[in-house]
Design brief:
The chain is an all-alpha fold and 191 residues long. 70% of the residues lie in helices and 0% in strands. It is built from seven helices and no strands. The chain has helices at 2-5, 20-33, 44-48, 62-69, 75-113, 122-163, 168-189. The longest helix is centred in the C-terminal third of the chain and has 42 residues, at 122-163. It is elongated, with a radius of gyration of 19 Å. The two termini are 18 Å apart.
Length: 191
């Protein structure tokens, strides 16, 4: 995840082993960045082990296109899939942002420590700053991804309401409102 996130902002990559918290940050970030319609696909394993490359900036209408192209016995199935994808993202927010806060706190301590470490080489200092930037890039990528996902879900819900009006739209709207609210709370909190 880190090497995939860093080039998005032209940041250098950290050259040493990750801490447990940093590995967990990347593990929890992946499902929030990966397109929801790719989950469970055979090729998603490639991305999980770092062979799939970074995901391109998503097309907001791609989620709706994929969901409309998937055969369902009734439109209720599409509503259910939409609500399941939204709920999955809501459930993933707390664990991700909890570890993101911990990593950000450790990075602040790491950066302050640079001033007191004796015999610090230029390479060690650069490596440490690169690591901090890489961790920040992962968190920023999740922020951007979440905003795009919420917009994609909104497009799907709007299209679904005109294609197949249903009482399920009310529940889907409620879930999407909760997701929007939680994303805004986390982003405004600063992590």
């Amino acid at each position: 995840m880190g090497p995939a996130a860093a080039p998005r902002t032209k940041a250098p990559i950290w050259n040493h082993q990750l801490t447990e918290e940093e590995r967990q940050l990347r593990d929890l970030a992946f499902p929030l960045i990966q397109p929801p319609y790719d989950r469970g696909r055979w090729y998603s394993v490639l991305g999980e082990i770092g062979l799939g490359g970074p995901y391109p900036t998503p097309d907001r209408a791609a989620y709706a296109s994929r969901l409309f192209q998937t055969p369902y016995r009734s439109q209720t199935g599409r509503y259910n899939q939409l609500m399941e994808d939204i709920r999955n993202d809501i459930v993933r927010l707390d664990p991700f942002f909890s570890i993101a806060r911990r990593v950000a706190d450790l990075d602040k301590k790491r950066e302050k420590s640079l001033a007191i470490v004796s015999n610090l080489t230029v390479e060690e200092k650069a490596n440490t700053l690169n690591r901090i930037r890489e961790n920040t890039c992962v968190t920023q990528w999740v922020h951007a991804s979440l905003l795009e996902r919420a917009a994609s879900y909104r497009i799907m819900l709007e299209r679904l309401v005109i294609a197949a009006p249903s009482q399920n739209a009310v529940e889907a709207e409620r879930q999407l409102g909760l997701l929007d609210q939680r994303i805004k709370a986390f982003i405004s909190y600063g992590t």
